[in-house]
Structures are given as structure tokens and as C-alpha cells.
Amino acid sequence: MLGIVLMVLTVMTFSTQDGFSRLLAGNYNTLMVVMVRYWVFGAFVMVLALRRPEGFRAAVTSKRPGIELLRATLLVAEVCIIVYGYTLIGLINSHAVFAVCPLLIVALSGPVLGERISWQRWAAVGAGCLGVLVILRPGGEVFSWAALLPLISALMFATYSVLTRLTTRDAPSFPSFFWPPVIGAVVMTVIGLPFWEMVTPRDALFLLIYGLLSVLSNWLLQKTYETAEASRVQPFAYLQIVFTAGIGMVFFGEELHLQVVVGVVIVVLAGIYALIQQRRQAAP
Predict the structure, then answer these.
(1) How far is it, in rounded angstroms, from Cα 138 to Cα 230?
(2) Average pLDDT, the chain
(3) Cα–Cα dist 16/21, whole Å
(4) Which of 13, 62, 34, 279 is nearest to 167 (CA)?
(5) CA-wise closest residue to 16 among 193, 246, 191
(6) Selection from 64, 39, 54, 61 nearest residue 178 by Cα
(7) Among 120, 95, 17, 105, which Cα is nearest to 264's?
(8) Stated pTM of the model
(9) HEC profile for 92-110?
(10) Partner of 263 for a Cys bridge, out of 74, 134, 141, 181, CB 3.0 to 4.6 A?
(11) In angstroms, how far is CA 101 from the centroid of its own chain?
């Protein structure tokens, strides 16, 4: 029960963070907004690393530095793309398409991790892709080139997630938590600083809150997985779509189209079915 509560709090925090992303990136350059987010998150993990009992160097040493660099680059690109997508097609449509991400992780787990994927889980992936097509409805008002941004973002984050599982198989998990925000802060400073804009006092406060929310959301997620098995709490992660839709409609005047609801239901049911099959496959 504690794990479920933590997961709900996690997705609520992520949804609020996305609301600030939508607000700030609508007023300022996306690269600048993401850069500030990485500054705060990077500073947070540096403090954590300095307080590790095994010492800073031992805590952050990774057996696969190349993969850590690739993961960090994927995550930076994913965040920039999805935040930019918020400004073009809104929170609701972006998250509706991004909901296919867990199913993409299933699809990538076979070739990247060598996991055996049952035909039932492949069927769930296929159903999820069908749900995305219902959401996008080629030829309809939701579909545009911008609608491909959250899909690209979902593929990037799925690849990042699978590589994370690869790096933590036979090594401590802290380096995998440490390097993406640190490398991301460096990368975003290089590419984001030239786009710095003057910020109003109100938006400076919002930027600070935005950065702190990124820290809190990731901390809550880590505590969630420390408390309960991922497969038991993961279905509750889909509540993020509900929270995000509420924020989009209340604060940004977004509309919830019928085909988006139908498509999301298909994707979510497919994702939960894939989780059930994964648990059955893992059971002795």
C-alpha cells in the first residue's frame, strides 16, 4: 500500500512538473527552460554523491561509461523534445501518445537485454501501437508532424530505460542515477546558455519550483521502487495521464477529444496486460 501511495504521489509530482514545463516553455526558449531544470537536478545528485558512505569517487564510478554517456544524451534529447511538444500540441495529446512508452520498453527488452518476450506480450505491444494510431488518427485534427514528437520522445525514453536496466544488472544503481543529470547539466549549459532570456521575477520563482519538482519527482520514484516491486505499482503510473489531462484542461484550456480517450484506454489496457504477462512469466 505504501508503494502505491508513493507511486500516485510520484505521478502527481511529474504531472505538476509537466504543467510548469508547458507554462515556461510557452514563454521562454525550451532549451533555456530545460537547462535550468538540469542545473537544479544536477546539483542535487552532486550533493547526494558527496554524502555517500563509500566516498564520492567510488559512488559514481561506472563500469560502462560509454553507455552512461549514451543514456544521458538520450534523456536530454527526450526531455527537450517532449517539452517542445507540449507547446505545440498540448499536454493531453502529448501524454496520450507518450503512454505507449512502457510497451516500447517491452519491445526493446528482447533485442537489447536478451529477454524472452512471449507472444502475449508482443500482442500487447501491437495493441498499444493500434491505440496510438487511434489517438493520432492520420488525417484527423490531432495528427500533425508535431504529434510525432511525443512518439519520438517515448522511443528515446524507452531506450534510456532499457539501457538503465542493462547498466544496473551487475553494478550499483547509484552511478546510473548520478550520471544522466550531471552529464545533462553540462550538455544543456553548452547548448542552452546561448538562448538565455531575461526572466521576470514571477517566472524566476516558477523556474526554481520547476527545478525542485524535477528533484522531488525523481526522488519519489526512487523511493517507490525501493518500497515495492515495480510490476506491482507500475499500473498506477498510468494515473499520470489523468492528472496531466486535468492540468491541461483547467490551466491551459485544452480539449479532450473522444478518439484520444479511446486510444489511451487501448494503450493503458495493453500496458497493464503486458505487465500481467511479465509477472506470470517471472513466476516460478
Answers:
(1) 34
(2) 89
(3) 9
(4) 62
(5) 246
(6) 61
(7) 95
(8) 0.90
(9) HHHHHHHCCHHHHHHHHHH
(10) 134
(11) 9
How is residue 207 written as a grid cell?
523556474
Question: Please, are residues 19 and 247 in contact by the beta-carbon 8 Å criterion?
Answer: yes
The residue ranges of every structural domain in the chain are 2-282
End-to-end CA distance of the chain: 24
| Alpha carbons 10 and 22: distance in angstroms, whole number | 18
pLDDT in tens, 182-227: 999 999 999 999 999 999 999 999 999 999 999 999 888 888 877 8
Which residue, 123, 91, 131, is CA-closest to 107? 123
In the chain, the amino acid numbered 192 is G
State the amino acid at position 231 in one-letter form.
S
DSSP secondary-structure letter at 200?
Answer: -
Selection from 70, 156, 65 nearest residue 108 by Cα: 156
Least Cα distance to 255 among 133, 92, 97, 20 occurs for 92
Phi/psi of residue 178, nearest 5 degrees: -80, -50
